[in-house]
Amino acid sequence: MEKQLATTIFGSLASGVRLDVFRLLVKNAPNGLVAGEIAALLALPPTNLSFHLKALTQAGLLIVTQEGRYQRYRANLVVMQELIVYLTAECCAGHPEQCFESDSASDRCDTEANLSTTQIDQIDSYL
Asked: Which residue(s) pair with 33 in the sheet?
């Protein structure tokens, strides 16, 4: 993945609504959802949702297929995985496999030495 594509993806996900939409579609993979279902589940007006779906699609995060008069949106899991690979490629001095050997965030890449106790607790709460 190129740096420019990664920044485009992050820019697209910088909106809370778009992040919610993408996470919902990841949760509903591989089937995806039609726009009306997304709008109902996230309590969004259709015009607002349309704007966000377009931005996510242009960033390459969504795959859209026409189903009769509806459009089905699916998370582009390949792009999501490529982004994760891009982000972790240089982890732990170029050995990303070491970064995920432990269940404890404080054991990864000696991050404990560089983070405050509060930051470590926040990381652990997400894991």
From this structure: 73
pTM (global) more than 0.90? no
Nearest to 21 by CA among 6, 43, 47: 43
In a domain, 85, yes or no: no
Structural domain count of the chain: 2
**Residue 84 lies inside a defined structural domain of this protein:** no
Single residue among 39, 54, 78 that ends a domain in this structure: 78
Annotate 58-67 with b (16+ C-beta within 10 A) or e (fewer).
ebbbbbeeee
| Residue 105, pLDDT above cutoff 50 | no
Contact (Cβ atoms closer than 8 angstroms) between residue 124 and residue 105: yes
